[in-house]
Amino acid sequence: MANLVENVELNWCFLDPNNPQENFEKLQWSVTAYVDKKVAEKFKKNGFIRTLRPVEDADGNETGQYKVTFKQNAKTSAGKDLMPPGVFTRTEKGTIKPLTGVIVGNGSTGTVSFDTYDWDYKGQKGKSMSLKNVLITNLIPYEKSDPAGSEFGDLESGSEFNKKEDADDVDLDFEEDGDY
Fold it and tell me: Which of 98, 65, 95 is nearest to 84 (CA)?
């Protein structure tokens, strides 16, 4: 039976089943949940996290929330592909359905399910968590503000980047001597 962390703010969601994030030479899916101090301390006490990582606002003040990151490897140590975590949402009828075609943006809320396991490696022992699924209850879709390269002008059609519809003129007011 999976464990649940319910009704939490989600950030840094790398959940695309076809595009796991490279993290220290491992491909992984991950999501960071913002939890209250009591929940974070329970994760630390159980050995699932090493340190309490407080969330700070834009001014650098602690918010009372703490970061807990859930990860799932995309491959075994032998190179075998593993199943990605599912990403789901609720329908108007209250049933669960897969959420596809959208990137989960920072500030979305939802529930994270995870498994725990004991490990023993080269004389070291510990406990870890493995991300199972994520249920999105309030989606904030991730949107790129400007395509890469658009600051230089209109992008050529067919390039790897999307053309910005309304490119703003850029005036950098550089001095003419060219010494930068």
Answer: 98
Distance in angstroms (rounded) separating the CA atoms of residues 142 and 144:
7
Q: What are the pLDDT digits (tens) for 83-110? A: 999 999 999 999 999 999 899 999 999 9
For 104, which DSSP code? B
3-state secondary structure of 151: helix
Instruction: Reply yes or no on whether the pLDDT at 170 is more than 70.
Output: no
CA separation for the pair 88, 75 (Å, rounded): 22
The residues pairing with 3 across neighbouring beta strands, listed in sequence order, are 114
**pTM of the shown model:** 0.78
Beta bridge partners of 86: 133
Q: Residue range 165-176: average pLDDT?
A: 46
Question: Whole-number mean pLDDT of the chain?
Answer: 87
Q: Would you tell me how many other CB atoms lie within 10 Å of the CB of residue 1?
A: 5
Q: What are phi and psi of 89, to 5 degrees?
A: -145, 170
- In single-letter form, the type of residue at position 137 comes to T
Residues 6+ apart with CB under 8 A from 32: 10, 11, 12, 13, 67, 68, 69, 70
